[in-house]
Amino acid sequence: MEDADMRIGIILLYLASIVVANVVTARFAPLEFGAFLVPAGSVFIGATFILRDFVQQAIGRKRTYAAILAAMLLSAATSWLLGDTLWITAASAVTFLVSESTDTEIYSRLKLPMAWRVLYSGFAGGVIDSVLFVLIGLSPLGAGILPWEAVGSAILGQLIVKTGMQAAGAAVVRMLPVGRTA
Asked: Residue 4: is it exposed, middle or buried by C-beta count within 10 angstroms (0-12/13-18/19+)?
């Protein structure tokens, strides 16, 4: 496979992961692990941070922002078409833009092997994604789907799943030749 085909494939996989995350979240009830509430698509949302790192590795930081913008628009459109409320759609778009941009900037600045950059930047993006989405989209500040008493559990539940995805992704990346180089 040529480099150009590889770059296009990585970008398409990144964009597809956004759609899959939205569809799974919309179609399946949140998972409950004790006190924690986790949208079913959280696993895929965690994967988007890892795939975004590969996009950046393939096309560079500046072009990655074009991919993030395209993914944000695709995410918002998918959310809206799946019947999400305006609050949820807006929360999804804002959260995506902020968390993916944070991931990009942290990934760019770390001078560590790729596996560690994937872990640290994805963890930061996951924290921002979890907090912002729950506050803007689900809490009484937004759509009012969750009462204040459930907000902390919803944030922690998402964070646990996304952190697990980042750790698993970083472990896989570490096995790749590119994962061990800065």
From this structure: exposed
pTM, two decimals, is 0.91
Can you give the residue ranges of every domain in the chain?
A: 3-180
CATH number of 3-180: 1.10.1760
Residue 18: the pLDDT is 93
- The alpha carbon torsion through 40, 83, 94, 143 (nearest 10 deg) reads -90
Q: What is the DSSP string of 62-88?
A: HHHHHHHHHHHHHHHHHHHHTT--HHH
Residue with tokens 């760019």: 108
Report yes or no: 33 and 157 within 8 Å, Cβ to Cβ.
yes
